[in-house]
């Protein structure tokens, strides 16, 4: 069935035939339900919206009569009943109001606008309930129109398109986005004066009607219009468009207005020359702008002749420029630093109205020099540059995720991006991506006519490398062993380099210095690695340094410095991973890193490295037995192995012994007893945490003592400064408090847990959502889950996503939106069972069964309840078992068997140790009113 409300209401049956709805009240009822498709609209809301002025004598009966008639027209299943009201039970895509909104949100403007047949909700446009929806739809329509115009402008600003945008801007005069697009279209047609006139009209209109200035989009269009091509005689014409760098251009132009010597520094291929030319175009210099290209000048004695040639004079440059308000652009100064510095200082001293703009891979070092370092392009700008250059060789090229990956792999270095785009003449983007492992070889074909030093990526780097002294070349090569950068101490320890040498490479734009770390761009790193002569010795020092770092960090991950060392190890992950490629030391490094993976809940990462460590067996170091046992236990645990680990003292060994089989109460209790008997405060707190888990999750009826253990654990970890395990203890306590109905206490515990960790894991956000849902704040619950989903998608964590989808399904069900709940259930159920715990699988099946019960599919709901109970029983998790039994009790109520439901609630109470009074009241009470 299709419902079309974007225009006069029209309903089409499954076979495409038109459905006759009859009178206006039925049409109004359908439209009101269609606005909230899949969501329950309360009886009170429907009565108020359908009869805003004078309600019938018995409004509930009148509404039920309308619902019955509408069901006869559409089919009984189309309108669902709920204790509080009714809902339209159709997938949102079958209602054009929602299909339109989704198409706009997903960037399909043409498809969205094709659904727009006329004035939406035409049958009820004058009613109160329609007003907010109409305003939202009109905003969506204008957004879709603007998105469609952007697509059209990208294909070319035809005269017809300009006329259309003019008409739209006139019809919607306060829509700044349309005025901005009109200006862009006019500029694209070469009508810059008309674009400026359009801006003035829009500016005056906004000031008159709203008392407001133009917003960012219109201001940007105005700025672009002001930058009409006006080539200055002393500067070369550009053959390609200037893409990105708008902020850098503004900063450089501002610097030139305030200082007389400005130097743009950056690595080779960063776009220094192009940026300087654009800034020179914008800098007021009524007496002239001159470019001096110093790249072909071999030595200082060729400097003055090159400047004279650029100025077109035989006079001394200082005499020629003495009385002029001018700008001199000295390009590619890095190989003539002493000569250029002297020349610039002399000219600026003798020519008071002269400004000098220089580009160099290294500062000139002149008094008064203002530096403007130029970094590689950020992601979006690099993609825009690649797209622009790609379309020159492959018309119609459309960027996608592969484009983003290419630009990221090339560090956003403009020259590399342009050379890669040119390769699309003969390669597809996918082929290009696969060959980026050898980027220097891949990008070895440059542009004919370009300066020799810029024709290939290797030539750019050769130019910089040749300017280094032998010690700097050695250091640069040795820096290539670091992955993801390094601290100064690591650089000194591994490479033998000094601070002065490192600083020199930073000045020469070969090393990037950020946040007390030093790194090479990947392109530079690949090049430097080809010059590494003592590779084995340097890599051995790298491995030794990072093994020592991990071993130093390991005990500090359980104390007050925890956050510092978690961040430090996260920052050094790439270096630590690289160090583990050394077969001789990988078992030792694996053992040192394991606690970090455990506290970060990165078990998949731990298992990945466990596999790698076991692949190195037999171990070269006979003392690596612990690493072997830990790795084996993570992948294929046996009772004997876990007992052996449980008898050890190392925290990582005890944690693996417990985590690998958390249902073994005897082992868990033995470890907990040994820890709580310790004199060490951290170990005692860990013992209480394990006792709480053993009591609550495995024993029957142990909720109260378990809560006491979690409280003791929390206090112990609070005292020792282990914030992560403190948060874990509070989280477990929150679950127990929620189970006994103490929602406020549970939220207080969870809030404290969240305050102690910088990144809130998905499991805590799911718990927060459940607590908000229990408190009746479903919108807040939904926001918590959507926030967690974004994080899980970013982290590529399928189990976390399944937990979130399960939670979103529960929130949708509680909101009465069972259609949406089903979609989330289907996503959750797609998780690989091998990734999930039996507790989660039990809860997932139980949650799905509850939604099926609400939908009336009791047979399928019964099947999933049975599956949930079977999994919960197998998990030996008391609270999980109790939760699924409570869901099964609701299913028995739906079947009319309250006695069986009460029996299940009694079983759940014995398992958990506390009752669920709200559910028991619903089971023993009567159903709510208004089922229609």
TrEMBL record:
Q: What Pfam families would the database entry show?
A: BTAD, HTH_77, TPR_12
Matches recorded under InterPro entries: BTAD, HTH_77, OmpR/PhoB-type_DNA-bd, P-loop_NTPase, Sig_transdc_resp-reg_C-effctor, TPR-like_helical_dom_sf, TPR_rpt, WH-like_DNA-bd_sf
The residue ranges of the Bacterial transcriptional activator domain are 95-226
Region listing for Disordered, in residue ranges: 913-932
Q: Mention one GO biological process in which this protein takes part, according to its record.
A: phosphorelay signal transduction system
Q: Which SMART domains match?
A: BTAD, TPR, Trans_reg_C
Query: Which keywords, in A-to-Z order, does the entry hold?
Result: DNA-binding
Q: Example GO molecular function term?
A: DNA binding
**Domain named OmpR/PhoB-type: residues:** 16-88
Give the family from UniProt: Belongs to the AfsR/DnrI/RedD regulatory family.
What is the name attached to this protein's record?
A: AfsR/SARP family transcriptional regulator
């Amino acid at each position: 069935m299709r419902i079309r409300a974007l225009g006069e209401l029209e309903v089409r049956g499954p076979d495409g035939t038109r459905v006759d709805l009859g009178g206006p009240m039925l049409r109004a009822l359908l439209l009101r339900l269609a606005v909230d498709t899949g969501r329950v609209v309360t009886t009170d809301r429907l009565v108020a919206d359908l009869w805003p002025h004078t309600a019938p004598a018995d409004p509930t009966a009148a509404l039920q009569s309308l619902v019955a008639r509408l069901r006869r027209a559409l089919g009984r299943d189309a309108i669902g009943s709920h204790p509080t009201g009714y809902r339209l039970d159709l997938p949102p895509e079958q209602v054009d109001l929602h299909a339109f909104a989704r198409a706009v949100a997903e960037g399909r403007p043409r498809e969205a606008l094709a659904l727009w047949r006329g004035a939406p909700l035409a049958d009820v446009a004058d009613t109160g309930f329609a007003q907010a929806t109409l305003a939202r739809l009109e905003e969506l329509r204008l957004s879709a129109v603007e998105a469609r115009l952007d697509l059209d402008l990208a294909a070319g600003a035809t005269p017809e398109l300009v006329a259309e945008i003019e008409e739209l801007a006139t019809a919607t005069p306060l829509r700044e986005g349309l005025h901005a697009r009109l200006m862009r279209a006019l500029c694209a047609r070469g009508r810059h004066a008309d674009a400026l006139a359009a801006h003035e009209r829009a500016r005056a209109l906004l000031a008159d009607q709203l008392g407001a200035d133009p917003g960012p989009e219109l201001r940007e269009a105005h700025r672009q219009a002001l930058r009409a091509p006006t080539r200055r005689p002393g500067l070369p014409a550009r053959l390609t468009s200037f893409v990105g760098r708008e902020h850098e251009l503004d900063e450089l132009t501002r610097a030139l207005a305030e200082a007389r010597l400005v130097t743009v520094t950056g690595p080779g291929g960063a776009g220094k020359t192009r940026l300087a030319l654009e800034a020179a175009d914008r800098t007021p210099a009524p007496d002239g702008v001159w470019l001096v290209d110093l790249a072909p000048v071999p030595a200082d004695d060729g400097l003055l002749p090159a400047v004279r040639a650029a100025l077109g004079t035989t006079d001394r440059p200082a005499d020629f420029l003495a009385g002029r308000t001018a700008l001199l652009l000295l390009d590619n100064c890095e190989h003539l630093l002493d000569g250029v510095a002297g020349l610039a200082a002399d000219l600026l001293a003798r020519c008071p109205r002269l400004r000098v703009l220089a580009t160099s891979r290294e500062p000139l070092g002149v008094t008064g020099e203002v530096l403007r370092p130029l970094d590689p392009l950020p992601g979006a700008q690099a993609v825009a540059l690649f797209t622009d250059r790609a379309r020159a060789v492959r018309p119609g090229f459309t960027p996608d995720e592969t484009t983003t990956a290419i630009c990221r792999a090339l560090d956003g270095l403009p020259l590399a991006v342009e050379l890669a785009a040119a390769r699309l003449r003969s390669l597809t983007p996918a082929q290009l991506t696969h060959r980026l492992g050898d980027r220097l070889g891949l990008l070895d074909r440059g542009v004919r006519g370009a300066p020799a030093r810029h024709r290939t990526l290797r030539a750019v780097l050769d130019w910089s490398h040749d300017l280094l002294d032998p010690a700097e070349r050695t250091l640069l090569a040795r820096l290539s062993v670091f992955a993801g950068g390094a601290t100064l101490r690591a650089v000194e320890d591994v490479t033998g380099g000094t601070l002065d040498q490192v600083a020199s490479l930073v000045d020469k734009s070969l090393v990037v210095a950020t946040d007390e770390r030093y790194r090479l761009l990947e392109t530079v790193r690949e090049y430097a690695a080809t010059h590494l002569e003592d590779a084995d010795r340097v890599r051995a020092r790298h491995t030794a340094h990072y093994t020592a770092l991990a071993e130093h960090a390991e005990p500090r991950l359980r104390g007050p410095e925890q956050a510092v060392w978690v961040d430090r190890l996260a920052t050094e992950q790439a270096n630590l991973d690289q160090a583990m490629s050394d077969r001789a030391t990988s078992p030792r490094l694996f053992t040192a890193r394991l606690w970090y993976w455990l506290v970060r809940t990165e078990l998949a990462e731990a298992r990945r490295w466990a596999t790698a460590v076991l692949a190195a067996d037999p171990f070269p170091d006979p003392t690596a037995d612990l690493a072997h046992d830990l790795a084996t236990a993570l992948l294929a645990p046996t009772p004997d192995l876990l007992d052996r680990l449980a008898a050890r003292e190392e925290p990582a060994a005890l944690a693996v012994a417990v985590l690998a089989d958390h249902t073994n109460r005897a082992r868990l209790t033995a470890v907990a007893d040994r820890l709580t008997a310790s004199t060490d405060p951290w170990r005692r707190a860990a013992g209480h945490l394990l006792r709480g888990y053993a009591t609550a999750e495995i024993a029957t009826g142990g909720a109260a003592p378990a809560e006491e253990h979690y409280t003791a654990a929390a206090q112990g970890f609070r005292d020792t400064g282990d914030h992560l395990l403190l948060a874990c203890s509070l989280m477990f306590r929150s679950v127990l408090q929620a189970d006994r109905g103490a929602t406020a206490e549970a939220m207080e515990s969870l809030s404290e847990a969240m305050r102690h960790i910088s990144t809130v894991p998905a499991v805590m956000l799911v718990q927060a959502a459940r607590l908000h849902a229990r408190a009746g704040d479903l919108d807040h619950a939904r926001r918590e889950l959507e926030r967690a989903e974004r994080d899980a998608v970013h982290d590529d964590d399928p189990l976390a996503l399944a937990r979130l989808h399960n939670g979103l399904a529960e929130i949708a069900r509680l909101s009465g939106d069972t259609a949406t709940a089903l979609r989330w259930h289907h996503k959750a159920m797609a998780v690989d069972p091998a990734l999930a715990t039996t507790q989660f699988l039990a809860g997932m099946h139980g949650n799905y069964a509850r939604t099926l019960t609400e939908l009336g599919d009791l047979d399928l709901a019964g099947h999933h309840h049975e599956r949930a109970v079977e999994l919960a029983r197998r998990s030996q998790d008391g609270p999980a078992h109790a939760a699924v039994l409570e869901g099964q009790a609701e299913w028995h109520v739906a079947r009319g068997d309250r006695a069986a439901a009460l029996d299940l609630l009694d079983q759940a109470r014995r398992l958990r140790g506390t009752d669920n009074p709200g559910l028991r009241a619903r089971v023993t009470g009567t159903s709510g009113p208004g089922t229609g």
